[in-house]
Specification:
Distance between the termini: 11 Å
CATH class: Alpha Beta
Helix content: 40-55%
Strand order of the largest sheet: 1-2-3-4-5-6-7-8
Protein name: Adenine deaminase
Largest sheet: 8 strands, parallel
Oligomer: single chain
Bound molecules: adenine, zinc ion
Strand content: 15-25%
EC number: 3.5.4.2
Site (Important for catalytic activity): 219
Structural class: alpha/beta
CATH superfamily: Metal-dependent hydrolases
CATH topology: TIM Barrel
Shape: globular
Mean pLDDT: 96
Number of domains: 1
Number of helices: 14
Family: Belongs to the metallo-dependent hydrolases superfamily. Adenosine and AMP deaminases family. Adenine deaminase type 2 subfamily.
Keywords: Hydrolase, Metal-binding, Nucleotide metabolism, Zinc
CATH architecture: Alpha-Beta Barrel
Radius of gyration: 18 Å
């Protein structure tokens, strides 16, 4: 295969997108019809997801997730998203998956992962895009639930589930209470990442590094509030899965020019660009690349380096990594 970073459309890679958070409203509406579910309150008059703040975002997200009830629903979701991503020039993606959300819709872990894997294989066959899955525990469901996910994932290894992570409401639960889950996942060889520095400050990022032993952080942008921590991130080569559009939509920053991604990058932090929950935040990976290039004056070479950083930090085998470079 021709080296994807060589020429042609700007190659992109995404390390941080929640698969349920990537559900196009049209697909959700179709599933509501299929299962005869009333989705009043889910969408606004423009047809987009209707939420006002982080808590109501999480509630709408949970409600939409409950409409994915069969493996084929999830296959359609991963295939649809990855095809769209490939059309934007993406060569690699890691889909964050949530076994607890699937269980909430009545689906076993095996059926959930099986459906998603089928969609991933179909998208790869159609477009060439490579993808892996990162299973997450939901922080506000509690430490026991997160540990249960770690045991589920390590007890039934799947070749495309290569990472373990922590998402949900960062305002709840200290990282120390999730240390056991992360130890289980790490000892099984899974790549580790955790949301931190989104709705809590630098101390949350430092605690994720110290207690969860992660080398990647979901968001991490509020590290900017502590210069010593920024230095530590740069010195230790921690990779930040930055999601600027998500941070703007959720009100962390008032405009992209005030977002710290450029300062973090200039301070030597390893950063990647990601969409998090694209239709919820009215963004796409392509838009994230384009708007950062415009606002921060990043060149094509800068963007290619960001993609390269994502490929270097990807939770995939070295053979796949080499083929993507
Ligand atoms: N789950 C889905 N999107 C999330 C976000 N931005 N932060 C934490 N948990 C999430
Ligand atoms: Zn996220």
């Amino acid at each position: 295969m021709e080296a994807p970073l060589g020429r042609g459309p700007l190659p992109k890679a995404e390390l941080h997108v929640h698969v349920e958070g990537a559900a196009p409203p049209d697909l959700v509406r179709r599933l509501a019809e299929k299962y005869s579910v009333d989705i009043g309150g889910l969408f606004n008059e423009d047809g987009g997801y209707d939420w006002q703040d982080f808590s109501s975002f999480l509630a709408v997200y949970d409600k939409a997730s409950r409409l994915f009830r069969a493996p084929e629903d999830y296959a359609l979701l991963s295939e649809t998203y990855l095809r769209q991503l490939a059309a934007e020039g993406a060569i690699y993606a890691e889909l964050t998956i949530s076994p607890d959300h699937a269980a909430g819709a009545g689906l076993s872990y095996a059926a959930y992962v099986g459906g998603l894997a089928e969609g991933i294989e179909r998208a790869r066959a159609e477009t060439g895009i490579e993808a892996r899955m990162i299973a997450i525990g939901v922080r506000h469901f509690g430490a026991q639930a997160v540990e249960r996910v770690a045991l589920q994932v390590t007890g039934a290894p799947h070749p495309l589930v290569t990472g373990f992570g922590l998402a949900g409401d960062e305002r709840e639960g200290h990282p120390a209470s999730f240390a056991r889950a992360f130890r289980i996942a790490g000892e099984a060889g899974l790549g580790l990442t955790a949301h931190a520095g989104e709705f809590a400050g630098p101390e949350s990022v430092a605690a994720a590094l110290d207690f969860l032993k992660v080398r990647r952080i979901g968001h991490g942008v509020r590290a900017i509030e502590d210069p010593a921590l920024v230095e530590r991130l740069a010195a230790e080569g921690i990779v930040l899965e930055v999601c600027p559009g998500s941070n703007l939509a959720l009100g962390l920053y008032g405009a992209l020019r005030f977002h710290p991604v450029n300062l973090l990058r200039r301070a030597g932090c390893r950063i990647t660009l990601n969409s998090d929950d694209p239709p919820f935040f009215r963004t796409t990976l392509g838009q994230e690349y384009a708007s950062c290039a415009e606002v921060f004056g990043w060149s094509r070479e800068d963007l290619i380096a960001i993609t390269g950083c994502a490929i270097d930090a990807a939770f995939c085998d070295d053979e796949t990594r080499a083929a993507l470079r």
